[in-house]
Amino acid sequence: MKQFRPAVLAAALAGALVAAPALADVKLSDGVVRIGVLTDLSGLYADISGAGVVEAVKMAADDFMKENPGIKVEVISADHQNKADIASTKAREWIDTQKVDMLQDLVTSSVALAVVKVAAEKKRIAIVNGAATSRVSNEDCTPYSVHYTYDTIAMANGTGKYVVKNGGDSWYFLTADYAFGHSLEKDVSAVVTANGGKVVGSVRHPLNTSDFSSFLLQAQSSGAKIIGLANAGGDTINTIKAASEFGLLKSGKQKLAGLLMFITDVHALGLNATQGLYITSAFYWDLNDETRKWSARYFERMKREPSMVQAGNYSSTMHYLKAVKAAGTDDSDTVMKKMRETPVNDFFARNGVIRADGRMVHDMYLVQVKSPAESKKPWDYYNVVATIPGKDAYLPLEKSACPLVKK
Amino acid sequence: MKNLQTVGYAALLLLGLVAPFAVYPVLLMKCLCFGLFACAFNLLLGYAGLLSFGHAAFLGMAGYICGYTVQSLGFPPELGILAGTATAGLLGLAIGFLAIRRSGIYFAMITLALAQIVYFFCLKAQFTGAEDGLQGVPRGHLFGVFDLSQPLTMYYTVLAIFVGGVWIIHRTVHSPFGQILKSIRDNEPRAISLGYDVDRFKLLAFVLSAALAGLAGATKTMVFQLASLTDVHWHQSGEVVLMTLLGGMGTIFGPVVGAIVLVLLQDWLTGFGSWVVVLTGLIFIICVLAFRRGILGELLALKARML
Q: Cα–Cα distance between B158 and B168 in angstroms, integer?
């Protein structure tokens, strides 16, 4: 290189100027963003969360790295077996020894509450997707927690309000006899009475019941128009199976309202048993082109359509990673600030906002399960009846019991 | 022989003191808590011949009481642990009083039934938080001085509690009281014929074992800062039987070995989900078929044969 080539030098310099900040503007604590997925890989929530969630988070990490080759993202996962102590031990260990920057999914209310506390103590971000309890963004909120996909209040405001307004004004509850069931019943009852309906009565069944006949008979004889199922997972599935065997829905006088149901439950039960049910969902794969496009990619990996929890995991992971990039660091405080400032706009949510109490407010959908005749293809399960604006679905910020909310 | 034992204990203590620099302290603390729990259980099974199938009630209840008093009533950690231990002792007195009237399988069934009552109490009571459990129990300052939120401080506190607990068990076993317990275990009618009030000794052993199990449970709550239904569930009662048999029933440190093996297994296999249960079941079968004295029991027997 005898000859001086200004153009080359200039190009090289310019390149260096452009390249240098691109490499240097994201400062990661240990050179990598590590995401820990704590979920139920083997128990009753493995369908709604489980392996699908791990895959969704990996998908988000892969997509992000494809666009930002300079930032390395690593995903690790573990099965918390729905036990709060296993989950919090694992979370602690991940943060202490593996330098995990963000914890994801946290299905099961007790697990979510425990891990959120550990994360806050260690100043790490915890995004709750799988768990339902509204305590995460109320009395147990932390500066580092986000409740992303849904909560019990949104479920009540969705299904409860709509059903009452459409003539379902007398309710009878079939409630799982534990904390989650009680709070769901309470939230829905409040919505029902606030909208001019009345609660005729309720019966409580133990967790993991297989024979619902006597409970359903009580519900039937109550004469209420709507039988609200304040339970989840296997209990909901068993109730609906029994109701269908009893011909409870064929009479036309009574309807079931599943207060916490997922598309995977419908898939497990089949349309014959679930047709006509109203469900509140944060996501449905067949909503629009964007959801279909994303879900097709998910389907390719998992061979099933995503539940709202799985879609929420992708969306929230992406939101977090983008915030890391925009903030130029993986420091939790800065990233949290960025996450709150930036609205969520993707296939999952439109103008979703993370509030001071950690609640991600976004639109919910009220859907009705199709009849077998209406369903044209596999997983074609829902008719979208209404879109519930985020501000109507979730608890207003001024009513939040979160101490971080300035009043 | 006596000297050898002292050297052995000193070596173990030294190992406990340096261990947190090599291994993740929280995992070690979990091992110690379950180790103490298994030792307490072993005091009853290994030395008094009473198979309790309800020890989770003491572990869990003490955890809840400790968590509640520290979190809601503002107790300092040492008082919280004491409150938990005392509650477990009282609970042991009530359950033991009813259970020791029967022996063998009936004893096991009565303890199981009463422990299930405790389980449902914890599920229904307000202060336990039911399904959600107690979370975020503050560790606070021990005696107002030592900051327990520091992992090492917490570790050495747990180690001290563990050593204290095991020392109590060791002393109990090697005291005249322990001798009587063993005689009851081996031949109850003869102990009665010698004029011992067998029921009183059994009850005392039961209360002691329950209180120590409670000590382990309360300490566990301070370590993990939570109390949950897992600890009162009968699975936990089954697990402690497994720990004790696996490590070596009727030896002081056998249950600790068993507890460590089981805790490590659970830790390593979290990625495999329900396989943990399958694997522990297999280990149990192998243990019962191949080495009935347990890991440490077999080693001690081997040593005895060689000497």
A: 15
Q: Are the CB atoms for A92 and A114 separated by under 8 Å? A: no
Higher pLDDT, A404 or A42: A404
Residues of chain A contacting B149 with CB distance shorter than 8 Å: 121
Say whether both A348 and A254 belong to one domain: no
* Dihedral sign of CA atoms B261, B267, B271, B272 in order: positive
Residue B4 vs residue A14, higher pLDDT: B4
List the single residue in A41, A88, A109 with the smallest CB-CB distance to B224.
Answer: A88
pLDDT of residue B271: 65
Do A114 and B135 lie within an 8 Å CB cutoff? yes
Residue A107: burial class (beta carbons within 10 Å; 0-12, 13-18, 19+): buried
CB contact under 8 A, A88 and B266: no
Residue B115's pLDDT is: 94
Each residue's pLDDT tens digit, A105-145:
998 888 898 899 899 989 999 999 998 888 899 888 999 99
A186 with A334, same domain? no
As for how many domains chain A has, the answer is 2
- By Cβ distance, the residue of B131, B270, B271 closest to A109 is B131
Complex ipTM tops 0.90 = no
Q: A261 and A169, same structural domain? A: yes
Answer yes or no: is pLDDT of A205 > 50: yes
Chain A hits for B229, Cβ within 8 Å: 110
Domain residues for the domain of A357 are: 33-150+287-364
Nearest-CA residue of chain B relative to A82?
B230
Q: How many helices (H) and strands (E) does chain A have?
A: 15, 14
Based on the domain organization, do A160 and A266 belong to the same domain?
A: yes
Choose the mutation target among B224, B270, B276 for the interface with A, i.e. most A CBs under 10 Å: B270
Is B131–A179 a contact, with Cβ atoms under 8 angstroms apart? yes
Q: What is the pLDDT of residue A22?
A: 44
The residue-averaged pLDDT of A252-262 equals: 86
Contact A133 B132 (CB under 8 A): yes
Q: What percent of chain A has pLDDT over 70?
A: 93
Residue A2 is predicted with a pLDDT of 46
Q: What is the 3-state secondary structure (H, E, C) of B3-15?
A: HHHHHHHHHHHHH
Whose tokens are 């010698």? That residue is B194
